[in-house]
Amino acid sequence: MSNEDVQQLLESGPVQFVVADVGGAPEWVPEGECFHFWKDEVKAHLASEAQARLDGFSGGYCYFASQWEPLQPEAPIVVLEKHH
Fold first, then answer.
1. What is the DSSP string of 11-77?
2. Which sign, positive or negative, has the C-alpha torsion 83, 14, 1, 58?
3. In 3-state terms, what secondary structure has residue 1?
């Protein structure tokens, strides 16, 4: 998913973000914090290409986003795979 894809989801309402980082448990971001999390954390670190250079992102990390399709969705679920 690209920045534009995630922004379109957010324009429709809350999004459930899940951060997946190797070696850690998935971090579920509360839906009520999704807009702040997007603006303050994800937007500047979201990679849209299969091969991203980590030194091109502040903090030396980036996310690759994909959308999960739950059986009974209350809000779209966007999985953020953290690479560092």
1. HHS--EEEEE-TTS--EEEPGGGHHHHIIIIIGGGB--SSS--GGGSGGG-EEEEEEE--SS-SS-E
2. negative
3. coil
> Per-domain residue ranges for the chain?
3-83
What string of pLDDT tens digits covers the 84 residues of the chain?
899 999 999 999 999 999 999 889 999 999 999 999 999 999 999 998 766 788 778 888 999 999 987 666 678 899 999 998
Longest Cα separation, the chain: 39
Distance of CA 57 to the CA centre of its chain: 15
The pTM is what?
A: 0.85
